[in-house]
Write a structure and sequence with these properties.
single chain, alpha+beta, six-stranded mixed β-sheet, 301 residues
């Protein structure tokens, strides 16, 4: 029996004034309850109760133990009530880490609605394109476009999408709209750097799918920077719809080469340190993001 169980049994004996009544209340035998108190007294090295045939009396040590036991049991009860309440009313700080592109173009629009729905939750969002250590950096949720493998993570596929080839209306007005692979080769294609092998764009041609290696005046290892450069009219990009779909809907970017752009589905992954997956604020955030992405016509899993 745990220490809290021993405290609960002891307080019931005192409250009811009888081993027999307390034993019935706790659904154990009086002899088992008597042995429990004896073991408790042996462990503490003091007498807690003076037992006679007529009554029970607390020793000074028993009075102190009873007072502290009540405080501890009340604290446990309040803690359990708070945690149970938080399932219906999630609260507290939720620490999220995400890539810059997804954060600036999707989370930026999703988070205000979440905070309005759950006003007792606070969000601390950190932006990095490198994968962080969730334990040392105290992160509850990591959102990435690729899944990490490691025993320290709980990994969940949240949604699936695709990559779009896009450019700003200003760029297309100035340089024209490419409609084939050969035409695309004459444009300033800005791409993700630091990839091994270099990231290529699969383009459908009459002879099959060709891996087009984009070249241009600018590259970056930061998806958010590529997005910003395309938005500013400096070239053509191929980025996940999780990043560009809002800008396409608003007309700030235009999807091009849709009929020849080929890609396997891409996934949006949630990584969590083990032990935090079922906390109420994590659970409701994941449910909310699934709802939000579904409204954007993504395939939510």
């Amino acid at each position: 029996m745990s220490s809290s169980d021993s405290m609960k049994a002891f307080t019931r004996i005192v409250d009811l004034g009888s081993f027999a009544k307390a034993a019935g209340d706790l659904n154990i035998t009086p002899s088992a309850l008597s042995k429990l108190v004896s073991r408790l007294e042996d462990r503490l090295g003091v007498r807690l109760l003076v037992r006679t045939t007529r009554r029970l009396a607390l020793t000074p040590e028993g009075t102190l133990y009873l007072e502290r036991a009540r405080e501890i049991l009340n604290s446990i009860e309040r803690t359990e009530a708070d945690v149970a309440s938080s399932r219906a009313h999630p609260k507290g700080l939720l620490r999220i880490n995400s890539s810059t592109g997804f954060s600036k173009q999707t989370l930026l629009h999703a988070i205000p609605g979440f905070l309005e729905r759950y006003p007792e939750v606070r969000i601390d969002l950190s932006l990095t394109d490198r994968l962080v250590d969730p334990v040392s950096e105290q992160v509850d949720i990591i959102i990435r476009g690729s899944a990490a493998v490691g025993t320290e993570f709980v990994v969940r596929e949240l949604a699936r999408g695709r990559r779009l080839i896009c450019a700003s209306p200003a760029y297309l007005a100035r340089y024209g709209i490419p409609d084939s692979l050969s035409d695309l080769s004459n444009h300033n294609c800005i791409a993700l750097s630091g990839q091994t092998p270099p990231a290529s764009w699969p383009i459908e041609t009459g002879g099959g799918i060709v891996s087009f290696l984009p070249t241009g005046s600018f590259s970056s290892d930061n998806v958010g920077m590529l997005f910003d450069m395309a938005l500013a009219g400096h070239g053509i990009v191929r980025l996940a719809d999780f990043v560009v779909s809002q800008a396409v809907k608003e007309g700030r970017l235009v999807e091009i080469l849709a009929t020849v752009n080929r890609s396997n589905p891409i996934s949006l992954w949630v990584l969590m340190p083990k032990g935090r997956f079922l906390t109420p604020r994590v659970r409701v955030f994941l449910d909310y993001m699934a709802e939000y992405l579904r409204s954007g016509e993504f395939e939510v899993l």
